[in-house]
Amino acid sequence: FFGREASTARLAEAVAHHTMIALVGASGCGKSSVVRAGLVPCVRKSVGEQVWDVTTLVPGGRPLHALAAAFMPLLEPELDEVDRLEKITGDDFFPKLADSLEKRLESGIYR
Length: 111
Hints:
By secondary structure, the protein is an all-alpha fold. The chain is about 60% helix and about 0% strand. The chain has helices at about 5-15, 30-45, 65-75, 80-90, 95-105. Helix 1 crosses helix 2 (about 30-45).
């Protein structure tokens, strides 16, 4: 990981001022590297008292399911992996996920 300091700085600035950000780009352009080797260490050493929950995902053929699976341990930490997977496959899961995220964002749990 070299030469991405400017990208890391822009991302760190974005997460400091926005509730959620998405990093989107062509396959192989270095998105994962700039997040995992740049942004995550940057925010972890500069956050002071703030605790950051970090999750990563590969969208694959079912990007919404991948997103749900990535967020489930943060939203439902008391569930084991099997229960999480069963919940994700339920018909009413995505509306509940959206409601849960919205409530957490409004409460300030996620900046």
